[in-house]
Design brief:
Elements (H helix, E strand, L loop, with lengths): L1 E4 L13 H10 L8 E4 L5 E9 L8 E3 L3 E9 L2 E6 L7 E6 L4 E4 L5 E5 L3 E5 L4 E6 L3 E10 L3
Antiparallel strand pairs: 1-10, 2-3, 3-12, 4-8, 5-10, 5-12, 6-9, 6-11, 7-8
């Protein structure tokens, strides 16, 4: 997991060939007029999802992980808390891995919580447990999904 300000995203662009493109889109796009939903790019290994939701109580958030994708979470409106647990500490699977959706769910509880404000981001690498969508009130976010084989 990496947490930082979008203004520092250049420090991480060498970690994956598509990070620069993902961060550029997040930083340069005015999301005010953008509809929620999936946004495809000219690269099949990168897409975005814009979503709006009511923040959940930590007890209602479920840890998840992915095998094929890296997630970059960045709030647009509101403050999102995300729980985290190291991959090697995830023990209790609640839903087996779904290959077509690239997701697995756990009954485990996060060991750490982070708060993300607009202008910040968090990167979650494959197999890292993360429980998104925690917070109060309305939250809107952009999520970049980057295929690890890209």
């Amino acid at each position: 997991m990496i947490i930082d300000s979008l203004e520092n995203s250049g420090k991480y662009e060498s970690l994956h060939p598509l990070f620069k493109k993902a961060f550029q889109y997040i930083k340069e796009t005015d999301f005010t007029g953008k509809k929620d939903g999936k946004i495809r790019t000219d690269d099949t290994h990168l897409y975005f999802e814009i979503s709006r939701f009511r923040g959940k109580d930590p007890a209602d958030a479920t840890l998840e992980s992915h095998k094929k994708c890296i997630d970059i979470h960045a709030p647009i409106v509101g403050v999102e808390r995300i729980g985290w647990k190291a991959a090697d500490s995830l023990m209790i699977i609640s839903e087996a891995y779904n290959n077509s959706k690239d997701i697995m769910f756990y009954h485990d509880y996060p060991t750490t919580y982070i708060k993300l404000y607009p202008g910040q981001f968090a990167i979650f690498f494959p197999n890292e447990g993360h429980a998104p969508s925690i917070g109060e009130g309305d939250i809107r976010k952009i999520l970049a999904k980057i295929a690890t084989n890209g």
